[in-house]
Amino acid sequence: MSRHHFFLTGTDTEIGKTTVSAALVHAAVQQGLTAAALKPIAAGQELREGRWVNEDVAQLHAVQNAGLLESEVGPLQLRTPCAPHLAARLEGVTLTREAVLAPLRAVLPRLQFGLVEGVGGFRVPICDGWDTADLATDLALPVILVVGLRLGCINHALLTAEAVAARGLRLAGWVANTVDGQMLQHSENLATLDALLPAPRLAAVPRLESPSPAAVAAHLDAAALQRLMTSP
């Protein structure tokens, strides 16, 4: 079975990583692939009908078709909505490299199309001496970058692309996600990113009132997505 697995990161937090992850999984499912996005560390839960739920994990679990448990989609969930190493410290949880990697390595071989979604930007501490960039490196996965289109995005995108390359990882593609609907020079910023980022753009997602997986997936570049899902 051909497998296509990627590490999905972003230029910052709150720029739509989970929304894009869900859309990519939706598109893969529509192509008949066994697909899921995994969120190895999720910080921030709310109590719903007697159980603690992380909204991102719930969204990713709903869109996958691999028969995964919610605990397989989001194996390490913390209640406090802050950087994971700080949330873990507040809650008396010990995060370790192996505790993060082991559940991913157990599930990824079951997926024809799989995403591992990072936390915040590309370099967020997880535990002493190990961060999300190390996680991507340990998994040796090509990277998909979500660029939140707002003031400053060019700098953030290019610095992230440099950091990915510095780890010896391939930037497989990027998604422009409009987080500021009033952004000045929107198309000009997009053209600059097209010219300077060393990977194909997979989508340019406008500001959507209801960014469901299907609605976001409608803005994916079909040809670029096909290459992503079939290339060696």
TrEMBL record:
Key words of the record: ATP-binding, Biotin biosynthesis, Cytoplasm, Ligase, Magnesium, Metal-binding, Nucleotide-binding
Database matches in Gene3D superfamilies: P-loop containing nucleotide triphosphate hydrolases (3.40.50.300)
Pathway of this protein? Cofactor biosynthesis; biotin biosynthesis; biotin from 7,8-diaminononanoate: step 1/2
Which cofactors does it use? Mg(2+)
Checking Pfam families in the record gives: AAA_26
Residues bound to Mg(2+): 18, 56, 117
Q: Which residues form the active site?
A: 39
What reaction is this protein's catalytic activity? (7R,8S)-7,8-diammoniononanoate + CO2 + ATP = (4R,5S)-dethiobiotin + ADP + phosphate + 3 H(+)
The cellular location(s) given in this protein's UniProt record come to: Cytoplasm
InterPro entries from the entry?
Answer: DTB_synth_BioD, P-loop_NTPase
What are the recorded GO MF terms, alphabetically?
dethiobiotin synthase activity
Which positions are annotated as binding ATP? 14-19, 56, 117-120, 177-178, 206-208
| EC number(s) reported in the record | 6.3.3.3
The reply to whether Transmembrane figures as a keyword in the UniProt entry is no
Assembly and partners are described as: Homodimer.
Query: What role is this protein assigned?
Result: Catalyzes a mechanistically unusual reaction, the ATP-dependent insertion of CO2 between the N7 and N8 nitrogen atoms of 7,8-diaminopelargonic acid (DAPA, also called 7,8-diammoniononanoate) to form a ureido ring.
- Family statement drawn from the similarity comment of this UniProt entry: Belongs to the dethiobiotin synthetase family.
Query: How is this protein named in the record?
Result: ATP-dependent dethiobiotin synthetase BioD
What species is given as this protein's source?
Roseateles paludis
